[in-house]
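Amino acid chain
________________
===
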Amino acid sequence: MRGGEPMDGLGIRTRTEQGVAVVRLSGSADMSEVARLGSELEDLIKAGKNKLILDLAELAFLSSMALSALIRAERLSEQHDGIFVICGAQGDVEKVLATTQLNRLFVICESLDGAMSFVKEGIS
């Protein structure tokens, strides 16, 4: 267990910080979790939380289907005049983003502080 979430599932914790929705994922974003992940992100954006940071620092695995959910969320955020930033990707998750070249589509910051600064600059 890490951060109170089982390693064999997907933990999704959401909080609002300075008007920005911060979604921290932990564990594994595998095929069985894609629908829940997509719904959570879509619900946030449609509820007006279109300034969104996805913190992957505690995520151990990211499936190709989960990547599709992230792409849909990024596009939906853009349609709602929002900002979608990923931070904290490391290890295998970082490699997947680089290998699939999605690091060219997404804004990716090393840290949550860096992501928050990027979003705040985009708002002002």
